[in-house]
Design brief:
There is one protein chain. The chain has 368 residues and is of the alpha/beta class. The chain has a domain of 254 residues: Rossmann fold (3-Layer(aba) Sandwich), CATH 3.40.50. Helices cover 47% and strands 8% of the residues. It has a four-stranded parallel β-sheet with strand order 1-2-3-4, sandwiched between helices. It has a two-stranded parallel sheet with strand order 5-6. The longest helix has 31 residues. It is globular.
Length: 368
């Protein structure tokens, strides 16, 4: 063999090692170290801006939060794309179950094998269960988030094999938080769905979408689910502002929105309880996470000692969200005194309180 052939052979061998053998070996090493037979192997998150850590950074939509003052109280004051001043409830849950400190967005192209294996968020700010809702703001539909999860599974099977991937999927924690945009942005703000559905029939329509989505995850091998209910939508600062004749003086919650949330939450909880009853023998752990009650307590001043409950920390707090909350906006000194960070989304402290309240439900999912 000539020296040129020898040199070419070593180049080829180096390429194969660096880009095929070494990554695969690293993945297999991680897989052996990962306690797949423990209670939780990974965390996967689906939904809207309440659980989107930055997927919208990578799509063409105006619904973004990857600039200051968003992330002002996050590690290194990093505006990751989370619609808050700091961490989201999904981050607190991931840390609590011992998976990771922060849940990254699936669309981040820099994610390594270890980050992928321990879980990601597929959520997209502005999304909802109704297929029409994400089209309004050009964000990722929940159905597309499910497709991304299937894509993720195929990627993982290549890296660590089908058997290990199946075990990881089975032992993972699945957090789903969506629905607010279906009502606030879609049903109440636009005429299309209202012309076709009464409010109760629209709720039934959404619950059918929830059922289909969960069936899709179940078919992929998911078994441990937590579904977040709706907040008191009539108390969101932007809802109060848009529906008040004098939005600055009168800051009372709008009952029609909040009563719709109460009705839908009851229907969702009943549906999830029925699923848990019928699927428990197949290893299902399905829980409903109530955020309506705790947020109502914060807003009504019954608990937690917040100074401001009807406006957000950013700007006037009455209308600002996404690009209206920007580096030139006035921002309150201490966001932990505010229930809301902007006119829609809770502050990091509010998210942490919500996590603490639902922790017992999380324990049910992750117990042996």
């Amino acid at each position: 063999m000539s020296s040129a052939h020898v040199h070419h052979f070593y180049q080829l061998a180096l390429f194969v090692y660096m880009f095929i053998i070494a990554p695969e070996a690293h993945a297999q090493t991680l897989a052996k170290q990962k306690p797949f037979n423990n209670t939780v192997s990974a965390i996967f998150v689906f939904g809207d801006s309440t659980v989107d850590p930055g997927n919208n950074n990578y799509i063409a939509t105006p619904f973004k939060g990857n600039f200051l003052p968003y992330g002002r109280d996050f590690a290194n004051q990093n505006p990751t794309g989370r619609f808050s001043n700091g961490r989201l409830a999904g981050d607190f849950i991931a840390n609590y179950v011992g998976i990771k400190e922060y849940v990254p967005p699936y669309l981040d192209p820099t994610l390594g094998i270890e980050e992928l294996m321990s879980g990601v968020s597929f959520a997209s700010a502005g999304s909802g269960f109704d297929p029409l809702t994400p089209r309004i703001s050009n964000v990722i539909p929940v159905s597309k988030q499910l497709e991304y999860f299937k894509e993720y599974r195929a990627r993982l099977e290549v890296l660590i094999g089908k058997k290990r991937t199946k075990m990881l999927i089975k032992n993972a924690f699945y957090l789903v938080s969506a629905g607010t945009n279906d009502f606030v942005i879609n049903y109440f703000a636009m005429p299309i769905r209202r012309n076709s559905y009464t409010l109760p029939s629209y709720m039934e329509f959404l619950l059918q979408q929830v059922q289909q989505f969960m069936q899709g995850l179940w078919d992929q091998g998911a078994r441990k689910f937590a579904f977040v209910g709706l907040p008191p939508m009539g108390c969101l600062p932007i809802v109060i502002t848009l529906n008040s004749e004098s939005p600055i003086q009168q800051r009372a919650c709008f009952e029609i929105f909040s009563s719709a949330a109460t009705m839908y939450n009851l229907m969702l909880e009943n549906q999830l309880n029925a699923m848990q009853f019928s699927l428990a023998k197949f290893g299902a752990r399905i829980v409903y996470l109530d955020v309506y009650g705790p947020l109502s307590d914060m807003i009504q001043g019954r608990k937690y000692d917040f100074d401001e409950v009807s406006s957000g920390c950013c700007g006037t707090g009455l209308m600002e969200a996404s690009y209206l909350c920007n580096p030139k906006s006035f921002v309150c000194t201490n966001a932990s005194k505010y229930v809301f960070w902007d006119s829609i989304h809770p502050s990091e402290r509010a998210y942490y309180i919500l996590f603490e309240i639902v922790r017992s439900k999380i324990d049910f999912i992750i117990q042996d």
